[in-house]
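Researcher: We plan to redesign the surface later, but first we want a full-length starting point. Tokens attached.
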């Protein structure tokens, strides 16, 4: 009953829908590589976020808080990704320069741990950003996407890194496929939530 009394945010809802379409285009572009589609998805995400924050002042406290957590976690994930990449470059440069050999297991462990943290933060950001606006069914969809993201970050990614290091197995295609499916799940979730936010009364 409480959800029936929530205000409609027509502009913010449209913004969430655009972000959702951006997710879907990202997943499709990964399955069928296309620079144009990737660029269009990025543009939709940016425009969608701008529209979303236009109505920020009208949001309820929980909606603001969870959206802010989502943005904060996304920024933190970007920082983790940057420093993980920087550390990997430093290790590879140092080992190649001093010992003329690759960093090997040390670099692989750092990569796996760094990108695991990155993935957890990133998918948690995707979960929380629209969570305050979601109904029960929509929250379930978001949680399914989040769990899929955890599987990618904590299981498939480390296996892919270890397998690539020791030439045991190549699980990268499976990791990419699951990542694309997760993007599609989040995309559909954002579109449904955005549409309901846009028209609810």
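Model: Full-length starting sequence:
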């Amino acid at each position: 009953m409480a959800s029936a009394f929530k205000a409609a945010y027509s502009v913010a809802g449209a913004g969430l829908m655009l972000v959702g379409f951006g997710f879907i285009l990202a997943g499709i572009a990964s399955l069928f590589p296309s620079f144009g589609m990737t660029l269009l998805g990025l543009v939709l995400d940016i425009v969608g976020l701008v529209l979303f924050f236009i109505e920020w002042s009208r949001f309820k406290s929980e909606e603001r808080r969870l959206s802010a957590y989502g943005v904060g976690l996304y920024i933190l994930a970007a920082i983790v990704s940057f420093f993980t990449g920087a550390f990997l470059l430093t290790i590879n440069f140092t080992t190649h320069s001093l010992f003329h050999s690759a960093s090997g297991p040390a670099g692989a462990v750092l990569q796996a741990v760094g990108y695991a943290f990155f993935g957890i933060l990133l998918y948690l950001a995707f979960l929380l950003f629209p969570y305050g606006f979601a109904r029960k069914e929509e929250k379930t969809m978001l949680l399914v996407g989040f769990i899929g993201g955890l599987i990618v970050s904590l299981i498939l990614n480390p296996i892919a890194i270890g397998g690539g290091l020791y030439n045991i197995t190549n699980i990268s295609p499976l990791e990419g496929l699951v990542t694309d499916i997760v993007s599609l799940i989040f995309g559909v979730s954002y579109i449904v939530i955005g549409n309901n936010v846009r028209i609810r009364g």
